[in-house]
Amino acid sequence: IESISSSKNIEDFYEYTENCLALLDEFKKSPQYEANSQEIESMKVDIPFIEEMKENHKRIAIFDLDETLMHRNLQNIEKSEKIVTIHLPSHKIVKVGVNLRPHLYQSLRKIRSKYYLIAYTASQQAYGDAVLNLIDPNSDIFSMRLFRHNCRQIKIEEQTVYVKDLRILKGIDLKDVVIIDNSILSFAYQLENGIPIVPYYEGKEDDELIFLSSFLINISDDKDLRDKISSQILKIYHDLE
Asked: What is the pTM of this model?
């Protein structure tokens, strides 16, 4: 946020976050908000690196894809930084343009020194895999991938929202988890674990991942990762409400 605080992007980001907070208030009043333990249990996923994580004293950083690490272009794709071919389950093949966020690789590798990284997108797996195969072809950055079918599908004011409920992580204490996303609705059940990031669309004048990596490294040895998020980030929401 510091890097673009004088631009229109930050105004749009705050306005969008205000709207998300209003939707979240409505969501909290609805019957859907109460956790369905059976549903959560049925969605739980095994963490392949859980033993290594304990031995290496590392934490978990979960990253959204679209507008967080990259931006997809559906029009004028030839002007994009990269072009990805997606093989849909319907056997249709589509191409999309991809702009990678500046400092992506250096920042993720820095964060990986203290965290295991999970990519968690609300998009379909065919799309998510295609983008991740571009970003991380050898799977040496992300240790795990989660997709739309791993999200809880929620209705808020006639809108369908895909919420990334962190309780699906089997055997993980949420004090050891952070999630980075441009929409706070994505981590609506665990605001205290969420770090909102200004959406990325295009251009090289963006240092958000540098600031983010510094913040994550700074809190990586804290007993509870949520403490600094609560003291430094959640108060922003109260100012917006």
From this structure: 0.91
C-alpha 104/C-alpha 26 separation (Å) is: 35
Give the rounded distance of the alpha carbon of 196 from its chain centre: 8
The position carrying tokens 């929202």 is 161
Q: How far is CA 86 from the centre of its chain?
A: 21
The rounded distance, in Å, linking the Cα atoms of 96 and 73 is 6
Helix (H, G, I), strand (E, B) or coil at 82: strand
Measured CA to CA, the distance from residue 70 to residue 199 in angstroms comes to: 9
pLDDT per residue over 189-225, tens digit each? 999 999 999 899 888 888 999 999 999 999 999 999 9
Q: What is the pLDDT of residues 56-82, one digit of tens each?
A: 999 999 999 999 999 998 888 988 999
CB neighbourhood size of 41 (10 A):
11
**Distance (Å, whole) CA 49 – CA 143:** 8
